[in-house]
């Protein structure tokens, strides 16, 4: 299926590895103009080189720390100056650290907001005016299933994700009059460094082995396996395309059936 993305300018945040990297690769393979961002320029340049080897196209690479509004504003201005606009924002961010509930301080809770929630709010706020002025845009927020399927070993991440689910709905309403569509993806147990970290924490908190924790993660799914980053990338490309023109305010769980609620 031709998704018609060859004329789109796509900004992918937190893209030096994991889901952001896979999504950037997907858009490059579709012929989009892609700019990737992460905190460290050296790491980002290495990721851009790998993406070029894998896809035959090299993305732009602009370092920015999305915990700072000034950095986000500089990033967005640089992309717009070089390419004229941002059509699609893949609003991705790192997940917060996890601890047992009684060990979580007020600073840990505030830190979770600073690490994930506020960066995604800031990025959306920075690109929305230009999209609305042009009458076309896509903001795709990468959230996570723990907003709907809480776990005691992901307290802060789950609460932040739940807030982002609400944000995605409100953002869709805000952008709809100008044809700016906002949708979200909830990755479940996708085989990334983040899931490896969560397995390590689950093992530590429950006195089990890492392999046992990984087994629990897969057993929570109906398909009894980990998802692959490319499976998330495919959904992001669809949401960005004109095939999804009547979809906004939606959250898609890509979790192998992990989420049991409706």
Describe the structure.
With 262 residues, the protein is an alpha/beta fold. The chain is built from 8 helices and 7 strands, in the order E-H-E-H-E-H-E-H-E-H-E-H-H-H-E. The chain folds into 2 domains: 9-188 and 228-254, 3-Layer(aba) Sandwich (Rossmann fold); 192-226. It has a 7-stranded parallel sheet with strand order 3-2-1-4-5-6-7, sandwiched between helices. The longest helix is centred in the middle third of the chain and has 29 residues, at 106-134. The protein is globular. The protein starts with 8 loop residues before the first strand and ends in an 8-residue tail after the last strand.
The ordered string of helix (H) and strand (E) elements is: EHEHEHEHEHEHHHE
Query: Overall pLDDT, averaged?
Result: 95
CATH topology heading of the largest domain: Rossmann fold
Q: Label the structural class.
A: alpha/beta
N-end to C-end Cα span = 30 Å
Kindly provide the name of the CATH class of the largest domain: Alpha Beta
Helix content: 40-55%
CATH architecture of the largest domain: 3-Layer(aba) Sandwich
Low-confidence stretches: none
Radius of gyration: 18 Å
Helix run count: 8
Largest beta-sheet details: 7 strands, parallel
What percentage of the residues does DSSP assign to strands (E)? Answer: 5-15%
């Amino acid at each position: 299926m031709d998704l018609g993305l060859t004329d789109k300018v796509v900004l992918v945040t937190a893209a030096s590895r994991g889901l952001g990297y896979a999504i950037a690769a997907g858009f490059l393979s579709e012929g989009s103009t892609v700019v990737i961002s992460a905190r460290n320029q050296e790491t980002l340049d290495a990721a851009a080189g790998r993406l070029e080897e894998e896809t035959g196209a090299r993305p732009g690479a602009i370092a920015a720390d999305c915990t700072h509004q000034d950095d986000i504003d500089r990033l967005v201005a640089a992309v717009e100056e070089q390419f004229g606009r941002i059509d699609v924002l893949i609003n991705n961010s790192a997940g917060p650290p996890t601890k047992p509930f009684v060990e979580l301080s007020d600073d840990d809770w505030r830190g979770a907001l600073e690490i994930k929630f506020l960066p995604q709010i800031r990025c959306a706020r920075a690109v929305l005016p230009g999209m609305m002025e042009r009458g076309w845009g896509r903001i795709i927020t990468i959230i996570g299933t723990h907003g709907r399927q809480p776990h005691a070993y992901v307290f802060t991440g789950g609460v932040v994700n739940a807030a982002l689910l609400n944000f995605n709905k409100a953002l869709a309403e805000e952008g709809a009059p100008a044809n700016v569509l906002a949708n979200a993806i909830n990755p479940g147990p996708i085989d990334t460094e983040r899931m490896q970290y969560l397995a390590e924490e689950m093992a530590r908190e429950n006195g089990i082995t890492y392999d046992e924790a990984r087994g629990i993660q897969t057993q929570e799914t109906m398909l009894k396996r980990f998802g692959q980053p490319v499976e998330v990338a495919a959904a992001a490309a669809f949401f960005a395309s004109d095939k999804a023109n009547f979809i906004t305010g939606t959250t898609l769980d890509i979790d192998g059936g992990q989420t049991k609620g409706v």
